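Replying to the earlier thread about multi-chain prediction with a worked example.

Input:
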Amino acid sequence: MGKGKPFLEVLASAIHEDYRFPFLEIFAFLYALGTFVFASFGVSITAIGATSQAMATANEVIAYGAVSSILSLPLLILIILVFKNIAYGLGSDLEKGIIQTYFSYPLKRWGILTAKLLSALGVALLLFLGIQISALYILAPDIILPQLGTVFLTYAASLSYPLLIAGIMLLLTLKLRRGGISLVVGLVLYFAMSMVSGIATIFAIFTENPVSLQIISAISPSLVLQQYYIASLGDFWAPALSEVLLYTGVSYVIVAAVFALGYTYFSRRLNL
Amino acid sequence: MALIVAEDLAKSYGKVVAVDSLNLTLDEGSVTGLIGPNGAGKTTTIKMILGLLKPDKGWVKVFGQDPWDNTAIRSMIGVVYEKAFFPAHQKTLEYLQRVCRIFGVSESRAMEVLEMVNLQEASDRQIKALSAGMLQKFAIAHALVHSPKLIVADEMTANLDPQARSELLEVVLQLNRDEKVAFLLSSHILPELSRVCDSVAIINRGKVWAFGKLSELYEKYAVGIIRVTTDSSYALEAEIRKLNYVKGLESDIRGISVRVVEGKEDELYEDVPKLAKKIKAKILGIETGSASMQELYRLAISAKERK
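Result:
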């Protein structure tokens, strides 16, 4: 018997299921719609909104504004797609026994999970970034190209929260092993986290104490990034670039820890 | 060489003990049946053998190795689950070709295995469009793709019609005879198992209550069996049970299988009509005969329970 390609085949099978017609078409359309439609307005509005308290330069602020204007809606679409693929997709695979079928192939458990995540998350991200980068290059090359560092940092800071959500969804799904229930619990959790974040922001503004914002920034560094570039929450917290980098780094460490937990559980503890 | 060795295997789900101190050995080239009632622990045992569940206690070795996350073992085992599930939106032949690539075998094998289970006409159908019986056949074809040395099947024929069952059992016999493929088959359809199995493990309440070659088990549990056919099995059973030379008995709607101490068969022939007269039951027949697999199972269970 020759050596097969179990990883690539399981990945192809997972992609086939996750992005079967019309899911890929619908989500690609929504990404494109959210990116291109909002971009034309977002750049100018955000640029105008830049305040004098911000720590960044004007060009950086404009680049940040351009990126964040095309990010907001597609980021929400990304989260919905990840919810569909991880909570519903992986959850249903666990519930119905498809993972059990994959476990009869000569592929390690971590390889099976990687294939599933690459399909659920990797392809969704690739689609998201592909359309985003194309849009930036087409719509505002003169703003973006000189500020690649700002662009990269904005994406890095904005994506860690959806990735954290994906990691938490993974843990929930592995524990619940029910597609529908995982989806509902995940949505509730997502809205609960958003509410906590909102309350923490309001609390910080009223008390003029940045501690709650700093805590939220550790899991959602787009907040510290926003404060760094446009200081929209007021001048009681003026984070430096090093702080932005620190919070972004910490958020990715948390994301990595959550995924590591998911991998460990899947590989060593998951009884089917 | 033993393909599967399980020793002192135990698994609980919360307070429910599914498998308790289970010992089992499966030899190369054998067809072993795992029989037992619902909830006996068959599926849990199979899942531990396949490395899907970690035992709470004891150990299991498959091809001499721990099956948990073991890719080498997976290349040598074909698996058929009680409820077969595959990525629903892929076509049967295309998915099996994918499985061929996974195991590194020629893609032409996909059609071969579909033909083996008589499913070639559904080769262009999406998996989700298969009926329950066809899906089960597909699962069997899926298990055969890489020509495994051992096939572990949990209620393999559960969703099949009688003809398909018969055809499939032929496939089992043929694979065992010609290619020396070993089988571990769990089923509650006992006559089927007696047709293909050379060994049987009777599992109940998570333990193997009897295990061995079918001939040995018949010799051990089914010698001295007398079948009494009557119109009131359960009433007569209560009377026969009082006889001190009766070693075991099982009754069903049609009659009673009585196992007596060796040499006491004639006494039973004399006593049964008297007992029947006493309770006004009608005796339709008394004959010495060999036990069916069903009776063997019952006798083994009742013998163990008496201990």
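The CA atoms of residues 205 and 233 of chain A lie 7 Å apart.

Feel free to reuse this layout for your own posts.
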